[in-house]
Amino acid sequence: MNIKQTLIDFVKYMGTWKFWKELIIMTLGMAVTAAAVYYFLVPSKLIIGTISGLSIVLVNIFGGNLGNWIMGINIVLLIMAFLLINKEFGAKTVYTALILGPLTNFWDAVFPWERIANPNPVTGTPSVMGDPWLDLCCFVLLLSASQALMFSINASTGGLDILAKIVNKYLHFDIGTSVSIAGAVICCTAFFINPFRMVIIGLIGTWINGLVVDYFTASLNNHKRLCIVSKDYERIRQYIIGTLHRGCTLYEVTGGYSGEKSIELEVLLNKDEFSKILAWMKDEKIDAFSTAGNVSEVYGLWSSGKKRKQLKEQNDKR
């Protein structure tokens, strides 16, 4: 595809609700990230497994300007995002990386941390919460929520998240585990400049960050796999296809006790659709044996709006 066609497609995309919705999500998510960094890392000088932390280590070892190190590393990571993940992820990450600095300055102008920070009674280091562990917990909670939100729309907060996404894509670890692995490697470089205690705090923070990211990701992307065994499977199938506009899979099964052959129907639904089908089966007094399980990640055509639209159009023609 040539550059002209790419620009035309992008202009068309800018006119869609999806573009503006994701732009708002990215902006708000990065505002939360900037607040987490500004209020909980800057005053207490905690080094978590981030690109900023790595840059601080490199400045202390090799010298140079901190901003230049951060910019150089981010440029390399953004190129990797385009090449190893996809162009959409790379483009969104360029935007989030560009607005992090201005949003940090925004919090500084609106409400400087000096107004609420107090010196730690033991170390004397300024701290918004009065203790580095509490600062760490607040930072991880806010950052993890923002990261999970970004990952859900195929974006990231930049820096470390790019490495985590690469680990997630090619090594197939959960996204939270990927965040922990990438962050731990970076965090260990702090042994060159920081006391052992501060490095351990950073490692623990990175590990907790991964756990909380997994929790928020599962909450945002939670779906239900519903398995139904019923003699009325055809009515259920028609409801799923015709009303919910979802696909389903049918299996022939044999009862272990009775030896009777039957049909098991399996379908993947979001929370709203799951509630609707259970209410419908109850209202229709359908006799069925059902089981349901949680699914946190879905790949392929299931969530494709285009696929659902085609299925709806096919049913409308019948």
Q: Which key phrases capture this entry?
A:
Alpha-Beta Plaits; 63% helix; elongated; alpha+beta; 318 residues; single chain
What's the SSE blueprint?
Elements: H1 3-14, H2 17-40, H3 51-62, H4 66-85, H5 87-110, E1 118-119, E2 126-127, H6 132-152, H7 160-171, H8 175-188, H9 196-220, E3 223-230, H10 233-242, E4 249-254, E5 261-269, H11 271-283, E6 288-295, H12 305-317
Antiparallel strand pairs: 1-2, 3-5, 3-6, 4-5
What does this structure look like?
This protein has 318 residues and is of the alpha+beta class. The protein folds into 2 domains: 3-220, no CATH class; 223-317, Alpha-Beta Plaits (2-Layer Sandwich), CATH 3.30.70. The protein is built from 12 helices and 6 strands. It has helices spanning 3-14, 17-40, 51-62, 66-85, 87-110, 132-152, 160-171, 175-188, 196-220, 233-242, 271-283, 305-317; strands spanning 118-119, 126-127, 223-230, 249-254, 261-269, 288-295. The strands form 2 sheets. Strands 4-5-3-6 form a 4-stranded antiparallel β-sheet. A two-stranded antiparallel ribbon has the order 1-2. A hairpin with a 6-residue loop joins strand 4 and strand 5 (261-269). Helix 2 packs antiparallel against helix 6 (132-152), helix 3 crosses helix 4 and helix 7 crosses helix 8. It is elongated and about 75 Å long. 31% of the residues are buried. The mean pLDDT is 78.
